[in-house]
Amino acid sequence: GGPGGQAGFVEVQGDLGKVVVRGDIEGGDGVSSGSIIAYGKIAAVTVSGDLSGGAGVGSGRILSGFDPLRAGDMGSVAVLGRIEGGAGAFSGSIGSGGKLASLIVGRAGPLTDVLIGANGERSGTVESQGLLGSVKIFGNVVGGQGDYSASIRAVDRFSPTGEIAGDLGAVTITGQLRGQDGIGSGSLRADGNLKSLTVGSWNGGVGAASGSVQTGLGIVHPGASGAIKVLGTFQAHGFAGPDSASIVVGGNLSSLSIVGAADGATVRVGDALGVLSIRADASDLLVTARGQVKQGKTTDVAIGKIVIVGSVSDSDFLAGYRLDGAPVNPDAQIGAVVVTGGWAGSNLVAGIADTDGDGFGDADDAVIASAADSARIISRIASVVIGPKLPAGTAISGSAGVPTDHFGFVAEQIVKMKVGAFAFPLNSTPGQSFDQTTTAALGATGNDVTVREVA
Questions:
Q1: Could you read off the pLDDT of 164-176 as tens digits, one per residue?
Q2: pTM of the full structure
Q3: Is 235 left (phi over 0), alpha (psi -120 to 50) or beta?
């Protein structure tokens, strides 16, 4: 494409068969320059080189379903070089007005940036209206200054012929998922279900919700997520925007596994989180889950299991909390919790609200107020093991020199808890409480950590 509108431009006012480009597609300054557009379907696309945008709006773009009244499905897409946005909105992008069968970007080999955002809004993006099948990115996904740049999006489609959920298939990113300055840059979104996600490492950026995954918040059907695996670190950097390096799941999240450290990240689950596993330290981490869609007779497990092979600091694990952070479920429960290292300045809470906002574990903690509170279900933490090889008095700490804060392990019932070699004398009688004045195992920093059952 060049400076003129629709320069180097292919337009089909019906359906388009297979597209093979043995080289690059390059947008220019003109609107829709260097683009391929079909009003209907595109059978398949293979680009052996790069797809790159320019300053023109929609430059360097492949688009099916330009006519919103047609089924604009797109078949399998493979861009074996890079997809790179430009200054123009929607530049260097792929858009399907219906389903998109599958996507491959890059080639196996040394890790480089292969899905790249720029200044333009939604530059370097891939989006379907309806199902987006399996996605394989051989390299890094890197957002830009443009909002939602370098994003992968499956959105709900509404048309005269019916509604289609924006489900997203199995996604593999061999390198980084990295947000930048733009809102939602370097992100994944599925209005419906996300089958699974495996990513090499994960970093938030300055933009709000940059380096984020959002699934299950559409309206065609309730959405959930299968296993999410992070093979490296999961972190938001020093000047990260709100909800950068975040996971937001409208329904259930079956499991989240993080091989590296988790630092400054956020995980919010609208229903239940099955298993959280971190094989390194967790710091400044927020994890919330509301609870089961359908309660059992005496159970409502919001977080099934937590295993952290490392230490925990400045973090919150809250069961019974909505996506917006509001406490809503007094019946929420947590299963087994194992932390091999220490626990500092952090909270583990099930079904309890901090009514005064001054920290968990003190006298103002109360069972979450709700008309739906079941008389047969009590909030519960099944078991807690912290620092099994550490001296009991050093495994847990609050914060030294801050007299106004407080931290706690809080539920209506805590069945078992062991810190170092010390087992707390918990029993079936509700309302037990232990702090540093009664139990040396809780350390000696300001008497600001409490194991508390709220009757």
A1: 999 999 999 999 9
A2: 0.96
A3: beta
